[in-house]
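Homework help thread (please don't just give me the answer)

Our assignment gives two proteins as sequence + structure token strings and asks us to describe the second one. The first is just a warm-up. Here they are:
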Amino acid sequence: MKPIRGSPYSECVGGSWKMITMTVMSRQPTREPWTLERLNHERSILLGLSIDSSTALAYSSALKSYLTFCRIHNLPIEPTPDTLSYYITFQSSFISPVSVTSYLSGICNQLEPFFPNVRQNRSTALVVKTLKGARRRHGKPTKRKSPLTREDLQHVHGKLSASSMLDDKLFLAMLMTGFFGLLRLGEMVFPDNVGLRDFQKVTMQLTLSIEEAHYVFTLPTHKSDKYFEGDCIVVQKSSCNPDPLACMLSYVTLRDHLFPLHPTLWLHENGTVPSRSWFLSKLRTFFSSEIAGHSMRAGGATALAQAGASPEIIKAAGRWTSDAFEQYIQKNLSYCMHSYLAAPLHMTGCCNYLDYLLPCPIPMPPGACKIVLQLM
């Protein structure tokens, strides 16, 4: 029977209608249907791309650790609260509880298709309290590398600025860009593991634009880019030595002369993308083991804090999705506070406050700098 106008119910007592209304113009393009085999194949590809290849490798290692634990203890592999609690108890005696926490994330990811309740079991009071107790009993202070300083940059600049070698100019430009742009080392180099190299993450030369007061390039997708849109990195010219803009211009001039048609931005003298081990070996010729690849990003965040930048600006400039940047700042908290309180006197003798501001990947609202200056 036809439904009553204006009512979802039919004229039949107890009957109801569910109707999907479609307009006359709501037409769909004609597409050939896929076979079930192709649907499974295409879905498998998408599921494989749901996490980064480096993350997938770490998760696989975590799963292997869990399966080995179950095998040597004759326990079923089902991740019940008891089994996960036993795993934490055992592993925390050999590795850091912080690493055990990361392992649990990988275990949940890998076992969820087979045991849908694994995340629920991971969140039970037994597992949470076991992990908390492991941190209290076995936890140790995290050893972090020292951040780079402007004095460190001046030291490297003094050694390499006069060099005519492309590799020297490359290293200097990357060092300055990593510090002033708050970049991770992995965002500029290839991983040493050839299987993890992905050209979709390589910065392209055509995205670089050098202006009078800054240079801009597009950073492709990275681990904190949830929407796979990339980020626009802007590095300002500095009135203090060393100037990142001058270093980049010197590198790009020689790079374009030697490789005018090569698509990637960062290039060796032999035309290959620099690797992580190469950059660290160059870094080791100037600094001790206390300075590592992440020291650029940590140093940039510390420099901003010393200049009196607000946490919101630091977080946006470094594209942090959490408050992890505070770990770098807190390590030099006393010096940062001293520099913050003495900022007006300190800046009149050297750089303008804007020289310390590392550019933000998103447009800064009008008056943002004025607000920070007023707080000082």
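The one we have to describe:
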Amino acid sequence: MKVTDEWLYEKMPIVDAAMVRQLEVCTQKDYVFSDKFRKRMKRLIQKEKYMYAEKQLKKITQKIAAAAVVMLVGALTVTMSVEAYRVRFFHTIKMVLDGNISIYSYESDEEKISDTILKPQYIPDNYRLNEEKITDTTSVLEYGNDKKHLIFQQTIVTNEKMIFDTNYNSVEQIRINGMTVFLYRYTDETFWAYGEYGNSIYVLAGDTIQKEELEKINWDETTARIASKTENDVLHALSKEHLNIDDFMALISPAAVPYLEQMARLSMKYTQERFGKTISMYIPLYLSNACTNFCVYCGFNHNNDFARTTLNDEQIEAECKAIRALGPFENLLIVTGEAPAIAGVDYLENALKIARPYFNNLTIEVMPLKADDYARLTKVGLNGVVCFQETYNKANYKLYHPKGMKSIFEWRLNGYDRMGQAGVHKIGMGVLIGLEDWRTDVTMMAIHLRYLQKHYWKTRYSVNFPRMRP
């Protein structure tokens, strides 16, 4: 039978009438409720209390409405037949959809949920915890001051459907706690942010708050999670064939140090299964050491006083021939500093055309480009792009990159999305070990990698671990 709008509206009066007929007519004034009824009401009251945080923000109630729908349907099943339940369920969903709400469905691939309920490590000044409700699968924390509210909700993913408001005024992609988060702002000056991490989804909502405040909920919490891993967490991760980010944290934690040899054997086993006993080599070709950045750790630093060199067409081709004479190298990495006026997109396009006849695989490690520019270069032989984020610690990023385009954290971070959008065949990522806590940085990179694999699944990825010499 096809369920149509007309059918729903036709059947609803019948269902409502049946519900009314099932209500007993009670003439007894001093009525004593049964234990079963008391328990049922107690559960409903607890659910109502659970939704308190959302009621405090009526303007954004629909933005986190999944629990409300579940509660409504659950309450109606007490007195309704199966057929009536189906009708009411469809009617509820239809009302939600009519309110310009979209349904987002997510299913976990984990059999057992092991995520730890987290609390935000940073709360804006003058905010205090007003309400806290934690169950086995959900944590709802409401913070507030005299004028504003902030809701922090974490839900362990099972098979539920989350319902979100799509009537937003603007959307922006930011980083909170090392994960990509979509920040939605509304004309009524409320905001709502949504992100995925491990087996959890996170919803952050409230009255107007600055993006910079949200982004402070980041580095320290990841560092603390890694440090909290135990030997049991390490053994659990080692026993699994497919690991998640939580397992990765355990394997790089201090608790995993006694198991380095075991991890090395597993690494060798998996490497040989996938690649055999082979080593793929590449050779770099530096086209220019001109750079407009001031990275404190780099020899190309614009302040360093030495003669800058940029190869011309004849020199590029001579280098390609010399490399071919060294041996059967097929993978060429073209490297430049970040000097768009000297070694910009036109220059790179020309260099790729010159190198293509000599090599089967061309990769660039240059300044981050626009998506259109990456797409343009793929048409002349570009196979891959290598870009090191250097560190994911945004708070300290500018200490190491004080001036130049590289000092813009978001431009570099979002460059990987631009590569994926352009259809780049292979993306190389990396953090510079030695700038910040290496465990936190590689975890952030692993989270970033999982995000990219999910959104740009046709692209291949590699990870790199450049190290600063002590």
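TA reply:
I won't write it for you, but here's a hint about the kind of observation we're looking for: The mean pLDDT is 75.
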